[in-house]
Amino acid sequence: MKCKWWIVLVALGALFPLAEAGAQDSDGKLRIICFGAHPDDCEYQVGGMAAKWAAAGHKVKFISTTNGDIGHFHMSGGPLAQRRTAEAQEAARILGIETEVLDIHDGELMPTLENRKKFVRLIRQWKADLVMTHRPNDYHPDHRYTSVLVMDSAYMVTVPFFCPDVPALKRNPVFMYFRDRFQKPTPFEADIAVAIDDVWDKKCRAMCALVSQFFEGGVHGSHERVSRIPKTAQERLEYAKNRRGPGHQRTADDHRDLLVKFYGPESGQAVKYAEVLEICEYGRRPNEAELKKLFPFFSE
Fold first, then answer.
1. Model's pTM, two decimal places?
2. What is the extent of the structural domain holding 119?
């Protein structure tokens, strides 16, 4: 006896119901997921925004798509992967968010079907409203392939019978890119700028937690550099502010027009530190009203 196709579809629908993934989750809170190639990329790029979302009760998760196990001048392998995972966890605790480090070797991420499915499942499981990652024209292969995998997921997260073990999203998230300075084939063009003056200390403390990278220099570090690490927590915080402050100030100055647009002339001109993002052409294309819902910071 032949089974009618519509009976099969109804049965599958009961097993794998479609999840709601509109502008917000059912609890009224935004859900943001960020994919960085290594256990420090998301923290550097959008640690301030993450802290602001978290402080307002929204849900943020950082994913490191590799374990960072060759990202140091003196140690590698399992011990380094464990160390960098612990650093990322401490940074997440400071920011008030969740974090996950995937067990993929540093420098070996590839845009495979297996990894595409992994990324699709992560986005669906988080019921993401907003997804962020690197741009695809980046210097590091792990950055590029993280971007490719996220972009390859941008449509598939809504396809019910792709990875049907995790409910598909009814509404595509908004996808955005981190800032970089690469010019070819296209330069970064910011669509959103967020003032992080009020969480600047918190972001710097999160960066201080990434000792192997921030203080020891990662793959380009040295024993001499390790010997110069500030001893006290306050000294380390001041070091972080002095080291990262100028770059975040340049970001604010370079995108002053966006800060004025979203915060108004007086507040926008007063911003000292900022983070910026570019909207990806994949996924949902938000209008200005939607952007203000996704980034509920501008009335502060």
1. 0.91
2. 20-194+276-292
